[in-house]
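Annotated sample (chain length 204).
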Amino acid sequence: MWLDNVDAFRHITPGRLALMMPRCPDPHTWARAFDDAITRFDVPNVPMLLAQVGHESADLTQLEENLNYSAERLMQVWPSRFPTMDSARKYARNPEALANHVYGNRMGNREVGDGYRFRGRGAIQLTGRYNYTRFSNAMSDPTILSNPDQLLRPTMAAMSACWFYVNHVPSGADVLLATQRINGGRNGLTDREARYERALTVMT
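Output written by the structure step:
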């Protein structure tokens, strides 16, 4: 059991993080990573950030986009791209081919293989060469582009999430608006709302 040192954490302690994200595999490491990232990017609404992160990453247990779909699921997720079973079978259970197909020539992806190379990673699933490049510039770290798997580790996973949040979610946004800016729709809105209420309680 860890002991919170409140003097060492400015924004989120391991104990509070564990209460907000009970499945978090290492609250101390993740609290340190997010505390530093929140400070660096001056995140204005920490409970909202952590509520969104908790949903997007399943309590920081999923840091990479799952692209291992069945043909049937591909037709549900991307009906315009996979209108028939035949069109979906080629990409079923083939994450690399799928990412290159659905993300190719989009989101700044311009080179062969960019779709998979810059697939969703991190605590808020940074996706596409365009976003990776902007994040790389914000961090003054070109190795993010040459080694994007850095976003699978706590420090860069947290940094990328906070960078994305402050660049996409306006200050004062409610849960719906924050969800739309992060997810593009209303996916998981009920869970996000519950997480936000829990975060407010824990951090009060």
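Annotation: The first helix runs from residue 14 to 20.
Annotation: The two ends are 23 Å apart (CA to CA).
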